């Protein structure tokens, strides 16, 4: 977004009749701000940045304009298919992606070498635990495993959901009964709690994506499982002190081999209340186009181009050279199922989230309860019991259970 | 009673410790703003200072426009609050009724509601009135937000003024307006000044309403800081530079008006 803002002067030169005014906000503030505005139909914005969680929900409400009749030069089929599918509601696109991600495992090759261990091509959670125990060296502030612990549906619960899916669990059964007090959740949370207490950094319950990124980049993490976008920053010598010692592997698997899948995208969308729809559309198609990616590459180098949106980016030899993880990320996104995948059938969609409006509230509340186990406030059993009944209450009030 | 040298030394040490603890985060912020992003992650004291972050911040956002909005909105909100609070506190201090106490408590109780509770109603009102993203809208909100505190503070200052002085004025034929302007205000000037200063600082630092009710046109410095707390990695150095620039004006202002502030806040504390 910061890069886009900087480069938008090029757009304004090309379109002298369109003037852009930017409001840049941090994720949580952004959500609150946009939801207030769009739900009250106040129409303060002509272009919105929203995630693939919001796009189908808001499209269903009639809050967004469909992105149909795109010009052929836009090459809509060049957008990665899982990402495109995640933005489609009733056969129409409602947002155009400027950034896409899946998740993977990052590890420190030098620490692995020192401990005499090797990261397998497809690690399992059991192996990962063994590795973490081996490389943890708390005296030198080296922590074997860093994971998201900061409460929030898009923070710790994104990771926890993927872990639970990997162990064969899910949020709801077909009757919308919460499935949190199950062996699968129990196993997943016990693992999460155990590995972070034994091998995690102090105060793990306040670490989100950004905090873990800083910890890994400054050499304090042995392994880290998180979004693929971190690759671009960890391999960048300007931002990372361990740029030449980063290895990567897929997300570990558990007992259910069809999971985990992880898919997130940030997109530009046009609210139905916009009074400048034509100009908005001109900008949105510019900022997500092939030409824009080429412009970023020219200005900032290929390693900084927006990842996870277009096939053509990944097929570009310059990008492959600048970003050694590129092919890996593309594969991770392409095998990601935008609807998610769990061991048992379920009534909802979503990979590392549940695609219902209530999930923001549910996810954040359960996230706080789970974080409570890390700080020692509750046991895993107590936390899951409380989380299950809180979730039950919310979905009953919303009228989901049949 | 005179304190022994040891006691005085202890008091001085305690004072300095508290001051340093309070000041440390600001010091660290200023220090970080001169680091490169790489140095900013690691808690190092030694580094080669750079203006890189300041250059980036200036290149990305129009600081002057944000700062101007902050000044206009804070001063406007404070003046408007004083305009309503001075007569209100006057009438409550010198012409109390049975319900004055209750009214005062009720006014204060409005501060106990978390602002987010009324976000949607206010947002709808602002939308209908066309006040979203306008300085006028924020001036009104800030005035309302600070009104209870301003009234309370002025009320306690006015209570210190002997009613006889005002009565003497009235004997000489002063009308209410003259009485407030020529007698009450000069007598309580330090109090009014410190109330105004406090309100100004509260307005300057307010971040909830300014973030939610503005977008591009009327956004003050709090929105400027927020735009540097980005979701794409941590940029501590830039964030620190932006914050330093945002707090600098009010900090300098605070230093200059320190005497009034302390004088006003302790006004009448020692009889």
SSE inventory with pairings:
The complex is a heterodimer of chains A (402) and B (271).
Chain A (H helix, E strand, L loop, with lengths): L1 H13 L12 H13 L8 E4 L2 H7 L20 H6 L1 E2 L2 E2 L2 E6 L1 E6 H7 L9 H11 L7 E4 L9 H11 L16 H17 L9 H9 L3 E7 L2 H5 L11 E4 L14 E6 L7 H11 L2 H11 L10 H5 L1 H6 L3 H10 L23 H16 L5 H19 L4
Parallel strand pairs in A: 6-7
Antiparallel strand pairs in A: 1-9, 2-3, 4-9, 5-7, 5-8
Chain B lengths: L4 H29 L3 H5 L10 H9 L2 H32 L5 H10 L9 H11 L5 H25 L3 H9 L4 H12 L1 H17 L2 H6 L7 H6 L9 H21 L1 H8 L6
Largest interface, counted with CB-CB under 8 A?
A-B, 34 and 30 residues
CATH class annotation of the domain at 62-226 in chain B: Mainly Alpha
Oligomer: heterodimer
Please tally the helical runs of chain A, counting DSSP H or I stretches of 4 or more residues. 17
> What structural category characterises the helix and strand content of chain B?
mainly alpha
Q: Using the CA coordinates, give the radius of gyration of chain A.
A: 21 Å
The CATH class of the largest domain in chain A turns out to be Alpha Beta
Rounded radius of gyration of chain B (Å): 23 Å
Commentary on this structure:
With 402 residues, chain A is an alpha+beta fold. Chain A has 2 domains: 2-101 and 263-335, D-Maltodextrin-Binding Protein, domain 2 (3-Layer(aba) Sandwich), CATH 3.40.190; 103-260 and 356-398, Periplasmic binding protein-like II (D-Maltodextrin-Binding Protein, domain 2, 3-Layer(aba) Sandwich), CATH 3.40.190.10. Helices cover 44% and strands 10% of the residues of chain A. Chain A contains 17 helices and 9 strands. Chain A has a 4-stranded mixed beta sheet with strand order 6-7-5-8. Chain A has a 3-stranded antiparallel beta sheet with strand order 1-9-4. In chain A, a hairpin with a 2-residue loop joins β2 and β3 (92-93). In chain A, α7 crosses α8 (183-199) and α16 packs antiparallel against α17 (380-398). The radius of gyration of chain A is 21 Å and the shape is globular. The relative contact order of chain A is 0.18. Chain B contains 14 helices and no strands. Chain B starts with a helix and ends in a 6-residue tail after the last helix. In chain B, α4 (63-94) packs across α10 (189-205). Chain B is 74% helix and 0% strand. Chain B has a domain at 62-226: MetI-like fold. Chain B is an all-alpha fold and 271 residues long. Chain A binds chain B through residues 1-2, 5-6, 21-27, 29-30, 32-33, 36-37, 39-42, 44-45, 210-211, 213-214, 217-218, 229, 233, 238-239, 241, and chain B through 37-38, 41-42, 59-60, 119-120, 123-124, 126-127, 132-133, 211-212, 215-217, 219, 223, 226-234.
């Amino acid at each position: 977004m910061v890069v886009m803002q900087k480069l938008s002067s090029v757009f304004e030169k090309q379109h002298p009749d369109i003037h852009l005014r930017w409001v840049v906000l941090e994720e949580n503030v952004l959500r609150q701000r946009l939801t207030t505005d769009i739900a009250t139909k106040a129409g303060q914005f002509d272009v919105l940045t929203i995630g693939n969680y919001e796009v189908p929900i808001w499209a269903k409400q009639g809050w967004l304009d469909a992105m149909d009749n795109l010009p052929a030069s836009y090459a809509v089929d060049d957008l990665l298919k899982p990402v495109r599918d995640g933005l489609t509601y009733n056969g129409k696109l409602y947002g155009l992606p400027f950034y896409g991600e899946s998740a993977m495992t990052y590890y420190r090759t030098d620490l692995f070498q020192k401990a005499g261990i090797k990261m397998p091509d497809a690690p399992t959670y059991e192996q990962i635990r063994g590795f973490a125990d081996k490389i943890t060296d708390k005296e030198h502030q080296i922590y074997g495993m860093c994971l998201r612990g900061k409460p929030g549906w898009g923070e710790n619960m994104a990771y926890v959901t993927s872990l639970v899916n990997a162990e064969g669990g899910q949020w709801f059964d077909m009757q919308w009964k919460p499935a949190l007090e199950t062996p699968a959740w129990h196993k997943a949370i016990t693992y999460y709690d155990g590995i972070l207490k034994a091998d995690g950094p102090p105060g793990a319950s306040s670490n989100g994506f950004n905090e873990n990124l800083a910890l890994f980049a400054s050499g304090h993490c042995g392994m880290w499982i998180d979004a693929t976008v971190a690759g671009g920053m960890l391999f960048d010598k300007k931002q990372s002190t361990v740029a030449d010692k980063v290895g990567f592997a897929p997300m570990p698997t558990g007992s259910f081999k069809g999971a985990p899948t992880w898919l997130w995208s940030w997109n530009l969308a046009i609210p139905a209340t916009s009074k400048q729809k034509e100009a908005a559309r001109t900008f949105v198609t510019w900022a997500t186009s092939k030409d824009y990616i080429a412009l970023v590459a020219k200005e900032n180098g290929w390693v900084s181009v927006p990842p996870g949106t277009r096939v053509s980016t990944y097929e570009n030899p310059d990008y492959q050279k600048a970003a050694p993880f590129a092919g890996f990320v593309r594969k991770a996104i392409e095998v990601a199922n935008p609807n998610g995948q769990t061991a048992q059938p379920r009534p909802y969609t979503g990979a590392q989230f549940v695609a219902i409006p209530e999930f923001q509230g549910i996810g954040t509340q359960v996230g706080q309860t789970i974080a409570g186990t890390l700080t020692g406030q509750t046991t895993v059993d107590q936390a899951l019991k409380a989380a299950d009944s809180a979730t039950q209450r919310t979905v009953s009030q919303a009228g989901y259970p049949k | 009673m005179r304190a022994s040298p040891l006691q005085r030394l202890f008091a001085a040490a305690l004072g300095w410790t508290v001051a340093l603890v309070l000041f440390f985060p600001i010091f660290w912020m200023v220090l970080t703003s001169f680091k490169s992003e790489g140095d900013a992650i690691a808690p190092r004291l030694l580094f080669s200072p750079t203006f890189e972050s300041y250059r980036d911040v200036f290149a990305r956002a129009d600081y002057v426009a944000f700062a101007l909005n902050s000044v206009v909105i804070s001063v406007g909100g404070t003046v408007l609050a004083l305009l309503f609070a001075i007569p209100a506190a006057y009438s409550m201090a010198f012409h109390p009724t049975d319900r004055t106490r209750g009214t005062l408590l009720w006014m204060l109780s409005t501060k106990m509601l978390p602002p987010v509770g009324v976000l949607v109603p206010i947002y709808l009102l602002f939308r209908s009135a066309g006040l979203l993203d306008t300085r006028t809208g924020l001036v009104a909100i800030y005035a309302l937000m600070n009104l209870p505190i301003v009234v309370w503070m002025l009320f306690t200052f006015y209570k210190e003024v002997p009613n006889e002085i005002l009565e003497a004025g009235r004997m000489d034929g002063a009308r209410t307006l003259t009485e407030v302007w020529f007698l009450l205000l000069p007598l309580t000037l330090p109090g009014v000044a410190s109330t105004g200063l406090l309100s100004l600082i509260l307005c300057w630092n307010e971040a909830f309403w300014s973030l939610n009710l503005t977008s591009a046109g009327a956004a003050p410095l709090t929105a400027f800081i927020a735009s540097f707390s980005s979701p794409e990695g941590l940029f501590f150095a830039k964030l620190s530079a932006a914050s330093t620039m945002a707090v600098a004006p009010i900090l300098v202002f605070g230093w200059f008006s320190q005497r009034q502030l302390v004088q006003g806040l302790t006004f009448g504390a020692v009889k």
